[in-house]
Amino acid sequence: MNGERQVLVEKEAAPVATPKLGWEEISAELAGFFASIKLAMFLFIVLAMTATIGTVIQQGERPDVYIKEYGEEAYRWFLRLGFTDVYHTWWFTSLLALLCINSLTCFYKRFPAIWRSMMQDKVNVALPFITSMKHNAEIRVAGTKERVAEGMVHMLAEKGYRVLVKNDPQEVTLYATKGIMGRVGAHMAHLSATVIVLGGLIGSYWGFQEFGVCLEGQTYHIPKGNFDLRIDKFWIDYHDNGAVKSYNSTLTVIDHDRPMTTKTITVNDPLVYKGIWFYQSSYGDAWDRVEVARINIKEKETDRVLKTVDLEWQKEVTVDHLGLKLALTDFVADFSFNSSEKKVYSKSVEHANPAVRLAIQERKTLRATPWIFYHYPDLFDIQGSRYRFELVGYQPMKFTGLQINKDPGVNIVWVGSTMIVVGITLSSFIYHRRLWAKVIPHDAGATVHLGGNSHKSQIDFQKEFRKLTERIKTINT
Amino acid sequence: MLRSLFLFDMTFWLYLAALGLYVGYVLARRPGLQFALAGLPTAGPEGESGWATQIGQVATIVTIFGWVVNTLALLTRAYERLQLSGTFAPWSNQFEAMAYVSWAIILGYVLLEFRYRIKAIGAFVVGIGFIAMGAASLLPYRYQTAEPLVPALNSYWIYIHVSVTLTSYAAFAMAGGLGIMYLLKERAEQRGNRSGVLAAFPDLETIDELGYKAIMVGFPLLAFGIILGAMWANYAWGGYWSWDPKETWSLIVWLIYGAYVHARMNRGWEGRRAAIYAIFGFLMVIFCFWGVNFLLSGLHAYA
User: Which domain holds residue B188?
Assistant: First the structure.
């Protein structure tokens, strides 16, 4: 590390002057604090610890869920500390912001030196600097200093080093470096944190996430995109063993009354139109309509089933020999009656008390629109009718649950992601190593003083250093 | 189905045999004959004596054979999946994932052995590979079969996201194993026990450096795996990040190793501390991989 101080961080090597307390000092002190590795480690660990909270405590539940599980007192604390939505609390966000400041300051403070070192075209070190390095060697070689240096330059260049040479009357000084991309990669990763957070922020300010329950055949307006979406079809595919293979919805985008595009979406394959994404998210039984309902027509007198008819949704069926015309007009999954508005509605989405409403015409004289209950077949009697109607079964219409998203920040997040992966990979697999050498001539040839360091991969570098030393020995033979 | 299960079984026994052989190798090498600095290949084949060389060679051969059978098992499973449901990723449930992790660990070990010529590490790293395989075979039968994928998993992303993430786990497992080895060796040295069984291990600096290397392989892979997961989530769940427990835990693991990677830049964070930290990190990986599936609910609870 001492070599690094000399070359990479020249400013730091200068001794600290008399301690004055001006703006310069304070800002340097602050930059030092915010750029420090210690702060980075602290933030990594604190983020890791606080992130666990949200995996143990359910996030974004209703108050009674927490009270039931943890008690009222604990829930009050949860609210105070934001434990019911940890990842959006001011303190968690601040930690993320600090991490960005940390990595940016680090970049600002350290990258210029790396840049200078990449652009460096001069070499200037003293002999004690080389001999005091962790890896150093003294090699005696035959030949003039120029020829030895030339041989070394050749050899190092062959190994992929960038070599600088300075030829003085008494000595030749060499500087060789390789793998600086490892350091550049680390800083690329540092910048990526801010890019990703930025993308996330853009997404949360200018994006949206909505959920829509959609029925087959219906067209829905998407106000945020100013176009319409028609649900053509929803169905489920199964494997041979009965397990679900895929959920599918065929959607058509209608923009200004013109069908623009049709796509069958599945769980892993959304539809994208004008930056808005439509995901197959869920499905379920509709609570206000059915595909088909099976009705038994019974004779009141004998309680005998005269006929069973399957009524399709809102389609009239004629049963000639009984003189009946039937139509299924309404359905509710969980029957309820609003007495003030005199309206029937479904009080939940559960099929707790299903009922259908029939429009019945009997022998041209009798008309009735009774509600028929699945669970209570004898509840109502149609006066004057010869028949009683029973709802024996129905096939609910399925709705498809679509998630509708827009996230203008997502591409920025991907840019940041690429930076972080490329950056970390570079800095993990390429390590920066530097060699300094002085070739000092004497009567029987030259002495090479070689020193080097690497900021990582000590074993590998040790091996490489040894090999280089061996090769220098044979340089002029 | 039975064919692949038979091969997985065979892998288990072969790894057990390999582990036994590596332990035997370490024991056979006990006599204090180490003049050479361990870890330096130029110093000859570790200065071994008596049966050690032969046992070591057999151990390597059995390990490689076990790995080949492991590969075949995964390929067979992939074929069975293809027949059954049209997707082939042989890491689609907990059992297959474990088998894949042990495959990756053993591959990593074999590469390490060929590169650094240190066999004694096998007693630990092959040990962890064996434990992974063993834990897989302890799973109930219904977890071991190749059920078709649920719709959310039925995607090309499973091939790359899962394999990359599991490979990073394997690297962290190796680092954990090396960490344990470091602590044992260090304790033996502190007791002045330089000629005992543990003397066969490479020197502390080498173990430390290899552990660091393993983490430096795992760290970018995990980052890549998490990001692939985010991309997948963006296609499947409608959002690249939803703080689902598995997601969050993989991020936690990544942050933990992130702290380690930065710590290594400072002096005093090699050796003992690093070894303990690597073991701690590995425990967190185990929790992320197993604990989250069985203890916490969330979108990843498929197994």
Answer: 150-303
Instruction: Locate the chain A residue with the closest alpha carbon to B264.
Output: A456
**Domain edge (last residue) among B94, B129, B148:** B148
Q: Which residue of A has its CA nearest to B231?
A: A414
Picking from B212, B236, B259, the nearest residue to A268 by CB comes out as B236
Q: Do B206 and A267 touch (CB under 8 A)?
A: no
- What are residue B244's phi and psi, to 5 degrees? -70, 145
Query: Is there a single domain that holds both residue B166 and residue B111?
Result: no
B185 and B104 together in one domain: no
Interface of A with B in 454-473 (CB under 8 A): 455-459
- Dump pLDDT digits (tens) for A411-429: 999 999 999 999 999 999 8
| B298/B294 Cα distance (integer angstroms) | 10
Residue pair A447/A468 in contact (Cβ under 8 Å)? The answer is no
Contact present, A340 and A326 (Cβ < 8 Å)? no
Residue type, B203: D
User: B270 vs B198, B209, B264, B278, B281, CA distance in Å?
Assistant: 20, 8, 7, 11, 15
DSSP secondary structure string for all residues of A191-234: HHHHHHHHHHHHHHHH-EEEEEEEETT-EEEETTTTEEEEEEEE
Q: Residues 52-111, chain A: which have Cβ within 8 Å of B? A: 52, 54-56, 59, 87
φ/ψ region of A221 (left if φ > 0, alpha if ψ in -120 to 50, else beta) reads beta
Provide the pLDDT for residue B138.
82
* A359 bridge partner residues: A327
Which of the four pLDDT bands, split at 50, 70 and 90, describes residue B267?
low
Same structural domain for residues B43 and B5? yes
Confidence of residue A147 (pLDDT cuts 50, 70, 90): confident
Does B252 have pLDDT greater than 50? Answer: yes
Integer Cα distance of B39 and B24 in angstroms = 20
Cβ neighbourhood burial of A348 (10 Å; 0-12, 13-18, 19+): exposed
The owner of tokens 């990582």 is A456
User: Which residues partner with A355 through β-bridges?
Assistant: A332, A373
pLDDT band, very low/low/confident/very high, at A97 (cuts 50, 70, 90): very high
Per the structure, how many domains does chain B have?
2
Residues B22 and B40 in one domain: yes
Residues A253-263: pLDDT tens digits?
998 888 889 99
Q: Kindly report the nearest CA distance between residue A217 and chain B, in angstroms.
A: 24
Whole-number CA gyration radius for chain A: 39
Q: Are residue B137 and residue B170 in the same domain, yes or no?
A: no
CB contact under 8 Å between A48 and B256, yes or no, is yes
Q: Which of B99, B231, B66 is nearest to B170 (CA)?
A: B99
Contact list in B for residue A428 (CB cut-off 8 A) is 216-217, 219-220
A156-183 pLDDT tens trace: 998 899 999 988 888 889 999 998 999 9
Q: Same structural domain for residues B132 and B37?
A: yes
Chain A and chain B share a number of CB contacts under 8 A equal to: 127
CB atoms within 10 A of CB A373: 17
- For the cut 60, the answer to whether the pLDDT of residue A407 exceeds it is yes
Check residue A14 and give its pLDDT. Answer: 46
> Is B131 in the same domain as B240?
no
Q: Last residue of a domain, which of B148, B174, B191? A: B148
Say yes or no for a CB contact (<8 Å) between A51 and B251: yes
Query: Which residues on B lie below 8 Å from A277 (Cβ)?
Result: 238
Taking the C-alpha atoms of residue A227 and residue A231, their distance in angstroms, rounded to an integer, is: 13
ipTM for this prediction: 0.84
Q: Record the tokens describing residue A209, joined without a space.
A: 């996430």
C-alpha distances (whole Å) from A308 to each of A167, A319, A359 are 107, 10, 16
Q: Find chain A residues with C-beta within 8 A of B267's C-beta.
A: 1
Residues B159 and B227 in one domain: yes
